[in-house]
Structure formats: C-alpha cells, structure tokens
Model the fold of this input.
Amino acid sequence: MTVRSERRAWTTVALGTMGSALPVFLTGALGVQLRDDLGFSATQIGLAMGASFTFAAVMSAPMGRLAQRLGPRRGFQSGLTASALSMLVIAGFARSFWSFCMVLAVAGVANSLNQPSANLLLTTHIGRPRLGFALATKQSGMPAAALLGGVAVPAVALTLGWQWAYVFAAMVAIFAIACLPPDAEPVGAVWAPGAGRSRPDLGVPLLLLYAAVGLLGATSAGAMVGFITGGAEASGLGPGAAGLVLSLGSAVGVISRLIQGWQVDHRGVLPIQRLVWLFALGGLGVLLLAVDVPATYLIAPIPAFAFGWAWPGLFNLSVIRNNPSAPASATGISQVGVFAGAALGPSLGGIIVDTAGYRALWLFAASTLLTGSLIAVYLRTRIKANRLRNDEALELR
Done:
C-alpha cells in the first residue's frame, strides 16, 4: 500500500466512524432543543441514547463475525447506509420518544457493524508501524462527532432548526460511503473473503476483561457527552456557550487520541499500560466537573476529555495486536462492553441528573474511570501470563 492509499483509508474510516456516531451524539448535544420542542425530559433523552448503544452491545459480537465474513468495504458500506437513513428518518418523521428510541436502536445496530468493519479495513490497509496512529485517527471520529454535535447547536439548531442538524449529519455518512477504498490484500492482519469462521487468538475470558474495561470507560464518556452541555447550562452558561463546552472537550479528545496513537507507533508504548494511566488521570479530571460552577465547565473538560476519552484507539490496538487472526471478531466481542457502557452512561446519567443533580453525575462518572484503571492493571497481568504460557507451549513442541 502507498502512503497516499493508507491516508485515504484512515481518513475515510475516521469520516465513517463520525457518521455512524452522529445519530446518538447529536441527540445528546441537541437535548435542550428536543426538550423545548418535543417535551423530552433528561431521562427520556438519556434512555433514547441508551437504546442505541444497548442494541449495539447486543449485536456487537454477531456483527463482528459478519464483518469478518463480508470484508471491510461491504461491511462498512452496509452499516453507513443504515446510519445515514436513520438520521434522515429522525429529521423527517421522529417526533415522539418511542420513535426516537426505535430509530436510534437501528442506528445502534448499524454502528455495531461499522466499528469492526472499520477496524478490519485499517488492519488490511495500514502497515503495523502506523496502525496505532491510524486507529487513533479512526477513533477520533467519535469525539469529532461530539464536536460537530456541539457546534450544531448554535450553527444549525438555533437558526434552521434541530431537524437540519440530522440532515447535514447524514451527508457525512453518505460522503464516507463514496470515499471507501476497495478491499486490499491484508498487510496488518489475516483476512480473506468468507473468513468469518476465524476465531480470536485470545480466549473469551480475556476478551471479556477487555469488555469490562471498555464498559467502565464508555460509561463515563457517555455521561460526559450526553450531559455536559446540560450541566454547563444549568450552572449558568448560555445555550450557545454550553454547546461549545462539548466542542472544546471533544477537540481536546481528538488531539489527545492522535498523540497517543503516534506515541504508541514511535516510542514503543504498550497500549494496555497507557490505558491504565489514561483511565486514572481521566477520573481525576472528571472529578473537577463535580465542583459544578460555570468556571469548571470551561476548565475541567480539558483534562476530562484529554485523558478520560483518549483511550479507545489504544484499546482497539491492544485487542487487534493480541488477535491478529480475527481482528473484526475479536473487537466485536470487546466492543460489547464499550457499547454497553455507552448505553449505561446516558441512561443512568439522565436518572442521576433528574434525581440528584449534575454533581452526583460527575462523581459517578469519575468512579467508573478509576475502577476501570484498576481492572486494566489486572488485565495487563493476565495478558502477560497468557503470553508466557503460550511461549512455554511452543518450546515444548
């Protein structure tokens, strides 16, 4: 693969990841407008977002196997088409809480196909020395979606109406489909059409530990993305400024993810080791939000997003490195926890906000990251022990 082809692959994947994440992230960013226009409560908005991630979690493992079987281009193309259609349906027809839940559930299933398809596309198009940065670029599509969601509040929702924000977001997914590169000979992992029977190299117990780490990290991230604009507005900031708070944090998250990916490629950083520190520092950053005054919403998003939402690229890289034979199938399993946490974050977040306030929400979100850091330490020791056992088995042969 040429450098130009690799760059096309990772930028297209980043756009596609952004497009598949926009249905749910836009819903969180447009929460104030949806409450004013449709009468949704914070709990209902959180539950609608949670429905998307719940269906994604349930379907993640089978969709990972489907992506492994279809190949990266066909899998990504199918998922992005469903993502775009779901946003157009929301813009044109969804006006009740239940219709939002149903359409976002479809978008969640599409996302559960898009994520392993994107991972497989990168492992077949990007050389190993640059895979960390490529995955970081891909995962930057998630905070970029949140950033666009925040910008959409003053730029679109407050001028043209919230429906048009979903229309413009659908165009992102459609453009990504048009830019998809053709399937290539594998350069970073083993894949061939019909290889869906390939099993992950790690056992299911270790992949479930990955899923547990992803669950806790995504729970905190889902709470931040879903309610930081509402919290900022409740603290005294105006609607436009509150939307830009999410954009600030998301921009910091994008930059941090790219830096983390570059360092893994060029400095020999172990992804799982870096996960431990990102979760711990991110948890401390989220604690600052619990002060719950306007000034903290201008300062705390920087460490909270720079550390607490910079881990997904390293997370996927660690899974892929340990499962080179079936990266889509393996990340389909580990992604179950990420999707489940993304569902739990806004769902519980809405209930916590309605019953105990935003300060309690940020204390909860910080505790999930700190707990995830501890589990990542244990996972690291289990991976090392598993590798030693495999090396000893090879010597005995």
In short: The CA atoms of residues 18 and 141 lie 4 Å apart. DSSP finds 16 helices and no strands in the chain. The longest helix spans residues 358-396.
